[in-house]
Design brief:
Elements: H1 9-29, H2 34-47, H3 77-99, E1 109-115, H4 128-131, E2 136-139, E3 149-150, E4 157-163, E5 167-168, E6 175-176
Parallel strand pairs: 1-2
Antiparallel strand pairs: 1-4, 3-4, 5-6
Length: 188
């Protein structure tokens, strides 16, 4: 999160999730740490004084059962299942590469993924390089099919993982041949 610009959507979403998590932790801990949780809640409330959802005077008056997050989140279980299976399989490949001393971390890799037409829309709104914790992901590229590996639990998806080439960004630690998408990237 520290790599992204303060106004970037990724950072704003991350901070929002952290705030919601903190509010739930405060609510769960308030019977045990009465004064501490109330003090933290008041600080959060001061920072969100223009937020109509946070109009309670105390953490003890906050009713979390009335919060309906399902209306705000669109989630597709089929897509998530596919993504978690893909991540699991790729993590196994990365672990083998670590054991063979080819790489030290997943951020040193470039991942090529070949998918059939029925899976193309699964990856549209996902930043795969962040999700898979690697430097770069290329979808449906022209890598030699002999190098592509069929994944055990996923039909119609093939992957090839190689060591990334280029310079390492001092902020996000990703390796790229040009500057990354962040404004603060030191690679020129």
């Amino acid at each position: 999160m520290y790599c992204d610009d303060i106004k970037s959507l990724k950072r704003i979403n991350c901070v929002s999730i952290l705030k919601v998590s903190l509010l739930f932790l405060l609510k769960w801990l308030n019977p045990i740490l009465v004064f501490t949780t109330e003090e933290v809640f008041q600080i959060l409330k001061l920072n969100e004084n223009n937020n109509p959802k946070c109009n309670e005077d105390s953490i003890f008056l906050r009713d979390f059962q009335k919060i309906n997050f399902r209306d705000q989140i669109s989630f597709n279980n089929e897509h998530w299942d596919l993504l978690t299976k893909l991540k699991y399989q790729i993590n196994q490949i990365l672990e083998d590469m670590r054991n063979e001393k080819i790489i030290k971390s997943g951020l040193e890799t470039k991942i090529h993924i070949s998918v059939s037409d029925k899976f193309k829309n699964f990856f549209e709104n996902v930043n795969l390089s962040d999700f898979l914790v690697c430097s770069n992901v290329v979808l449906n590229n022209s890598v030699n099919n002999n190098k592509m590996i069929n994944l055990d639990s996923l039909n119609d998806i093939k992957v090839f993982v190689e060591k990334a080439s280029g310079q390492k960004c001092d902020h996000c630690w990703k390796i790229s041949e040009g500057s990354c998408e962040r404004k603060s990237c030191p690679i020129k």
